[in-house]
Amino acid sequence: MENLRVEEAIEQLLMYTKAVQEAETVSLLSANGRILAEDMKAERDNPPFDRAPVDGYACKAEDLAGALPEKQVTLKVIREVDAGEYFDGTVQHGEAVRIMTGAAIPAGCNCCVRQENTDYGEDTVQIYKSMEQWEDYCFQGEDFKKGTVLLKKGTKLSFIEIGILASMGVAEVPVIRRARVAVLTTGDEVMKPGEELKLGKIYDCNQSLLAARLMDFGAELTRIDKIPDNPQDMAEAVREAAEVSDLIITTGAVSVGKKDIMHEVVRILGAQRIFWRLEMKPGMPTLFSVYEGTPMLSLSGNPFGAAVSVDLLIRPMIQKLTQDDTLRPVRKKCTLTNDFGKSVGGRRYVRAVTDGETVTIPTKIHSNGILSTMAGCNCLIEMQKGKTGSHAGEEAEVLLL
Ligand SMILES: Nc1nc2c(c(=O)[nH]1)N[C@H]1C(S)=C(S)[C@@H](COP(=O)(O)OP(=O)(O)OC[C@H]3O[C@@H](n4cnc5c(N)ncnc54)[C@H](O)[C@@H]3O)O[C@H]1N2
Ligand code: MOO
To answer: Where does the MoaB/Mog domain lie (predicted)?
Structure first.
């Protein structure tokens, strides 16, 4: 297939992307940001006992009938129960226990009186306020009951869910294993950041850009490497990567130049070529193939193309691999505040900044080979020939990054 629309391309990408089925067990804090692989059922009630919500005295509400500041009730304080302690006796009429917030309420009590409504007595206490039964009283299991499914399989775990798991007493969490992705760049002109730049060379920015975004998506990077511009070397790197990866991303060498080796690589590998070229800018010469069941998406070398494609094309694949629905694309309609200088001949993605209501295009160079003018941008405007969204005041279709 050639010259696909973006929507058709995404359909193809997803058709060859299989959800990861394997689960693994990780420690509670390492589960942050991961997808739960099983329903999580409470193994006990929480709180595990009736507990005091105030510092004061636990007693029987019936004993306090009619209590007022001028008509105090006096109870015998039979002991003190601090948080973490447990008194297994039963409180009788006329008795109270001194109790602290979070401590287990002993049998026989049906309310807790705040200490501010007492004389703070130690052997006996004078109480100045009547109470209803079960007033200022927290019941066992009111947070959750034993046997309740608190978190469902497929839930993305964030700080709240980590807290809930902790309150369940869970230390090891079953999660879907991460999507494994290899990033292989090509190009004899590119060098590693940190190396001394030689004449005719530039630094490889695609590798780091893609790796960073894939990490945002929760992927595990199996290999991040620059491969020499040689079809045999690249084919070998793809073979190796396919053994340990769910997805292979390459950049560069997909166009029509003499050194555009990725077409030859697909032939050497005997991979199934699914499509080449999309009706979009940037990223027009994108090539998609499948090698022994592993999808390989080969992006153009232009850094802005990599930046657009990672959210537009790769993100839905990672969403499917990991079943992480928080990765679904978020689109908004915003009012464009300025004109896009270039003509829009087809589908085009333009770097921009949105505040959620309006969207503004940087008045700097917009070239697919240039990344620096994307600094501070938080969205892409999706422009299409014959549609609104490229002139000031028009409604623009915005894809949030
Ligand atoms: N005669 C034609 N020339 C070109 C066409 C065409 O249709 N006919 N298409 C143009 C378009 S559109 C694109 S996009 C590029 C795509 O070229 P490739 O995907 O083969 O990519 P390269 O040539 O390898 O690189 C393009 C550009 O990006 C730089 N680059 C490459 N890798 C990196 C990297 N890892 N980090 C930073 N920059 C990188 C590379 O030096 C080139 O400047 O082809 C057009 N030409
Ligand atoms: O597809 Mo290219 O990235 O338009 O310049």
So the answer is: 182-320
396: three-class secondary structure by DSSP: strand
SS3 347: coil
Beta strands 73-81 and 95-99 are parallel
Residue to probe by mutation, ligand 2, list 254, 276, 284, most atoms within 8 Å of CB: 284
Q: Which CATH superfamily is domain 331-400 in?
A: MoeA, C-terminal, domain IV (2.40.340.10)
Which pLDDT belongs to residue 168? 98
Ligand 1 mean position to 297 CA, how many Å?
A: 15
Q: What is the pLDDT of residues 275-317, one digit of tens each?
A: 999 999 999 999 999 999 999 999 999 999 999 999 999 999 9
How does pLDDT run across 327-361, given as a tens digit for each residue?
A: 999 999 999 999 998 989 999 999 999 999 999 99
Residue with CA closest to ligand 2 atom 4:
282
Which is the CATH superfamily of the domain at 2-20+178-327?
Answer: MoaB/Mog-like domain (3.40.980.10)
CA–centroid distance, 33 to ligand 1, in Å, is 35
Per-residue pLDDT band for 32 (boundaries 50, 70, 90) equals very high
Rounded Cα–Cα distance for residues 287 and 322 (Å): 23
**Paired tokens of 375:** 């600094």
Helices (H) and strands (E) in the chain, counts: 7, 23
pLDDT tens-digit readout, 379-389: 999 999 889 89
